Amino acid sequence: xxxxxxxxxxxxxxxxxxxxxxxxxxxxxxxxxxxxxxxxxxxxxxxxxxxxxxxxxxxxxxxxxxxxxxxxxxxxxxxxxxxxxxxxxxxxxxxxxxxxxxxxxxxxxxxxxxxxxxxxxxxxxxxxxxxxxxxxxxxxxxxxxxxxxxxxxxxxxxxxxxxxxxxxxxxxxxxxxxxxxxxxxxxxxxxxxxxxxxxxxxxxxxxxxxxxxxxxxxxxxxxxxxxxxxxxxxxxxxxxxxxxxxxxxxxxxxxxxxxxxxxxxxxxxxxxxxxxxxxxxxxxxxxxxxxxxxxxx
Length: 297
Fold this sequence. Notes:
The structure is a single chain. By secondary structure, the protein is mostly beta strands. It has strands at residues 2-5, 26-34, 37-45, 59-62, 67-68, 78-82, 96-97, 103-110, 117-127, 133-136, 147-152, 156-160, 174-175, 181-188, 194-201, 210-211, 215-216, 230-231, 236-243, 249-253, 263-264, 267-268, 272-282, 285-295.
């Protein structure tokens, strides 16, 4: 004989196989009796509360950009997406797809416990990429030392390389590169879609192709021991002179390979301020530069 407890939701608690007809999960204990002996075991009945399936959300993406679909009804449900072409797995809640155009997908969602299902349509809207165009106002030469870049077709822009730009995050930055440079702009539209374009700025001639330091340390440590002109282009007909504070010429050269080692009249020149004068010919004509030089030991 058998005795089930609690008797709640059972049609007969005193038989071997009672029928459960309740709507609340319950754990039951059954005691079996034979020849004056007894043993108890248990079994749990779980009620699955079925909730109505809800509409999965539509998705937006950009052309050639993958998008993750969302079945939106939990991982306990069973999913079947169609069309399956292009989906990495049509049988999961969140397959990834890269549609070539706006597409409506269907998903059949099945309750694994109660075997009920619902069918939904999910729209994936594919936005086109912006048509980004890059331009320049002019190339660089002796007259034009900078150029105005411009980009159209998007909402925000990022230019690279950014080193010679006054603002890399605007549609119209000013560029002043040292050499001919190709600038690439990445434009993003209101939908978050991006595209790129490039423009080359050609630098033909310029007279800003030399650098003169304002300090040097002739202490024989192998670093900054000699004062010289640093040339970035081709210059000729050079006159390069250094004067001390008394107006005495302590160094002169006619080429950029020569440099002043900090000595005057076969002895170390005193630390302090000196003045340099440079005249040189470039392909844009003659340039003259004057400035102060600090000698430090």
